[in-house]
Specification:
The complex is a heterodimer of chains A (434) and B (90). Chain A contains 5 helices and 25 strands. By secondary structure, chain A is α+β, with helices and mostly antiparallel strands. Chain A is elongated. The chains are: A alpha+beta (434), B mainly alpha (90). Strand 4 of chain A pairs parallel with strand 1 of chain B.
Chain lengths: 434, 90
Amino acid sequence: YALSDTVWKKKDLTWHIRSFPLSSTLPHDHIRNLLFYAFRAWSNTSALTFREVHSEDADILVDFSRSYHDDAYPFDGPGGTLAHAFFPGEHPISGDTHFDDEETWIYDPENMAPGRGTDLFAVAVHEFGHALGLAHSSAQESIMIPYYQGPVGLPHQYRLPLDDAMGVEQIYGKRHPGFHPDDDRPALPDPTAPPIPDFPPYQPTQHTHPPSPDRCKAHFDAIANIRGEMFFFKQKHFWRMQPSRNLVSLEPAQTLRFWNGLPHDFKAIDAVYERINDSQIVFFIGSYYWVFYETQVNPGYPRPVSDLGLPANTVVGAAFVWPHNGKTYLLEKNQYWRYDDQLGHVEPGYPKSVNLWEGVPTDLDDVTRWNDGNTYFFKGTQYWGFSAGNVQSDAGYPRSASQDWMYCQGAPTSSPPAPRHGVGGDKGMCICQG
Amino acid sequence: VRSSNGHKISKGVEWLTRYGYLPQPDPMAARLQTQEELADAVRTMQRFAGLPMTGKLDSKTLEMMNQPRCSLPDIIGTSELMRRRRRRRR
């Protein structure tokens, strides 16, 4: 590592975002969250703390600027120079960090979109290193190498390379053993703004296993078709059915070990669906929702459902995309809203009564589409099928959800036995993989 | 060929100066960059970037110079130090 000539004479530093990108697709809260975790990378290993403040008196001011912007390092448009930060000191500009607003700033922790933009978190960690007094390093594994190397992984799991950790520790000392990471959570810049949600603490191993629910009792909390597979959620577990209708396992998997970013103390998931416009996955718990990219929550979540245009205390019990019109429907007890995924808002004229779909009870567990193009409504031990865009339940329903979907023999059903559909093994036994 | 080579060297010198590998031009003194100084600067840049230290503006080096990067210089204070040295010599 290489150190500059100057250091901060204090260890409790404040930061403030003075300007946001003009055209980035990243919402402001995501940017705040990413910068929070970029600072945390440095406070995790040193005695420094960082606090976001709503004032330009902050030690470190962050700007997204273009071209010449009143310092000695004008930006040069897309590519080339990406950002810079000033070393610590007494000058007003000391510590300030500038990002080129003409770059395409993205959040891409797993490098899923190489060449489509620059990962803001990776660059922010580098620049904040300068703001703390580190110069460029020639160690190829260092975050302080001057060249952009691409994303560095998930912000809340990121740990500084040894070279950089040693550098910042040399200046400011090691972190105090009694210090808790949450002590430096950002203060709200606006008292009316919702709090910045935190990622859950990373737990690579869980030593306690919550008791597994019985798949044959059905009563699922949420059901969703995600990437062509059906997920049945119950309490803190889920079963997964492949497109071939085989259950991956008769034993449920732990939701928190697969979906990374839900709160650890949740009791049940109320609804889940895969967004039609970007294939991201939305979870509803209580009056909050989380949006996942693959199995990882996006920064900035949870958000209140009021963000979607729903009344503040709405508990979405079912969410699905109606294949007939490609619209998303959000149900709560006996009412529903039609939601526009493109606009990110419910449409005017709602809520309406769920009796639009004839033959199903209210307060459904969830609704989802299967790969046969039909939509299935679940409640308790039963389910109802709707072919294509019909709003009238198909004949022969309700049927037993545990028999037809969980392959349970002799499970209670309120309708006469009917030939099972789908691909099961002999005598209705499932074929399990692994 | 000569024109293309000249352009390459000119861009290289500009890059090396901007990021601290070569001293900023001194407005008070007319001075040419020697081939040896340029090769030294290129070698330092190559070592810093983890490239083979050829001392030449070869394709790998030019490619690295086109990589997106931080605006701050890699060698801080070089130009200031060199200016001081030159002043002492004078």
